[in-house]
Amino acid sequence: MTRHPALSDTAQDSLNEDTTKAWIEILSVTPQLVRDVVAEVVREGATTLTENFYTRMMAHPRAAAYLDQERVQKRLRATLCTWMTDLFGTLDAQQIPEAIERQLQVGVVHARIRLPLDLMSAGIRILKRGIRRRIDFTALDAADRLIAHTYVSDLLHLVDGLMNQAYFRDIQAVARADRSEERRVGKE
C-alpha cells in the first residue's frame, strides 16, 4: 500500500484499519443479494451514470473549468466507469485494502488539480442520486430497496471521506513544500 508522506506509518495503519472496519460493517449489514443487485445496477448503468455525471458537471460553471472536453472524452469517462464498478464490486473483506488505496489515490489526484471539495461532494451526490434512481427499477422489494439505498449512501459517504482525507494530506504536503521553496528562494 502506498504511504502518504504527510502521514506517519502508525497513523496510516490506523486510518486503514478504521476504514476497513467501517467498510466491513457496511457489508455485514447489507445482505449479499442487495450488494449483488447494486453491483449489477452500477455495472449495467455505468455508461449512463457517467454520461449524466459529466453532463451535469460540465454544466456547472466552476466544475467545467476542471474538465476539458477532450480529456473527459478520452480518459475520464472510462476512469469513472471503472471506479464505480470496482467500488460497488468490492463485495468481500479481502478486496477492501485495494479499494481503500484507490480512494486515497483519487483524493490525491483531486488535490493535485486543486479541485474544490464542494465539487467533489457535488459529484458524489450526482452519482448517489443516479444509482439510487436505478435501484428503484430493480426487482428488489421495498424493504430491500431501502437497504440498497442506505448501502449506496453509506459506501459513497465512506469513500468520499477517504478521498477528502487524502486530499487534505496532499494539499498540506504541497503547502509545506511551497513554503520551503519560498524560504529557499528568499535566501538566495
* Relative helix content: over 70%
Measured between the Cα atoms of the first and last residue, the distance is 39 Å
The overall strand count is: 0
Contiguous runs where pLDDT drops below 50 for at least 5 residues: 1-6
Largest sheet: none
Rg, rounded, reads 18 Å
Give the rounded overall mean pLDDT.
Answer: 86
Overall geometry comes to globular
Strand content of the residues, in percent?
Answer: under 5%
SSE sequence, one letter per element = HHHHHHH
Helix/strand/pairing category: mainly alpha
- Count of helical segments? 7
Fold topology:
Blueprint: H1 9-28, H2 32-59, H3 61-64, H4 69-88, H5 96-112, H6 117-135, H7 142-187
Helix pairs in contact: 1-7, 2-4, 2-6, 2-7, 5-7, 6-7
Short structural summary:
It is built from seven helices and no strands. The protein is an all-alpha fold.
Give a verbal description of the structure.
It is a single chain. The protein has 7 helices and no strands. It is globular. Helix content is 82%, strand content 0%. It has helices spanning 9-28, 32-59, 61-64, 69-88, 96-112, 117-135, 142-187. By secondary structure, the chain is mainly α. The longest helix has 46 residues, at 142-187. The N and C termini lie far apart (39 Å).
